[in-house]
Design a protein that fits this description.
1 helix, alpha+beta, 4 strands
């Protein structure tokens, strides 16, 4: 099973693509709504560590915001 690091934006899950926006003062993770474009991690523990780091970045920028990033399982690809 593969895992992604994601956050909710409205009612849609936004998953980390593996890239960052280097134009902002703090490198913000770039997200996608497409599971196939998300950065896939083989290990749940690694995805959870990345989520903890992203949540620390959120807290550093806005101390009153909640932790929003979490590790989620990616859907299995079904071949036709």
């Amino acid at each position: 099973m593969k895992y992604a690091v994601a956050r909710m934006q409205g009612s849609q899950a936004r998953m980390f693509t593996g890239r960052y926006n280097d134009r902002s003062p703090v490198c913000a993770p770039i997200t996608t709504g497409k599971p196939g474009s998300a950065k896939a991690y083989d290990d749940l523990d690694v995805a959870e560590v990345i989520a903890v780091i992203f949540n620390a970045m959120v807290k550093a920028r806005a101390p009153k915001r909640r932790a929003v990033w979490t590790a989620i399982p990616l859907p299995e690809r079904v071949s036709p």
